[in-house]
Amino acid sequence: MFDRRFVYASLPFLVFASAFIRPASSQQQTNTLRIAAAADLQPLLPPLLSQFEKQSGIRADAAFQSSATLATQIIDGAPFDLFLGADLSFPQRVIDAGRGEEAKPIPYARGTLVLWTRNDSGVSTLALDALRDPSVKTIAIANPEHAPYGRAAQACLQHLNLFDMLRPKLVVAENIAQAAQYVDSGNAQVGFISLTSALTPRLKANGHFIRVAAENYPPIIQGAIVIRGSAGAVAAHRFLEFFEQPETQQMLAAAGLEPVR
Predict the structure, then answer these.
(1) Rounded to two decimals, what is the model's pTM?
(2) How many domains does the chain have?
(3) 163 inside domain
(4) Range of the domain at 157
């Protein structure tokens, strides 16, 4: 016979235990945010993260790599909450792998490609056509397979029928931040880098740049996605709302990223 005394005696324990049990499908949300950030954001994102923390109380940390590297890490299970890519294709790759909350990436900024050189590089005329000159021996470029800015630079040279001619001069970096390091350190005379890097105090003091005409390369529309099932998904959505604030958009524009809307 079923003993009701056992049920009554067990009720306090069951009520106590239920307070600590959560369904396996739901994940405890944290008040921290882990961001996988494209390398072109490295010069400008840290102060924005500090501003976000002041406003929201959410601590945010970022890891900077090429968009391709970050996409691969996320697909392989890296514990990020938010992916800020340097284009739309690599966030879309994460979505296609079932790791994104959105059906398509959320555009958050438009990037600008520039040609930069040190003031003491010996390059007398900074211009795309001047790259043919024999005095220009090395040109830094981010890896087109991994970095959207490198892809844009290659598209520009191909559009101007310069790529095959200049290929022997190219010094290929893993990402756009490393391309800026190559040309700033003298490992390359000139370099295709992001406007975000060219506007940093160090590069503004050490060199000068020209903007690559927008018609010479496809638009660099940068996209974001929240990682499906991440512990900081709520914080990630809060950060995307912060990104859309007029004050934040002004800070992005001053640092080299134009609004897309």
Answers:
(1) 0.86
(2) 2
(3) yes
(4) 112-216
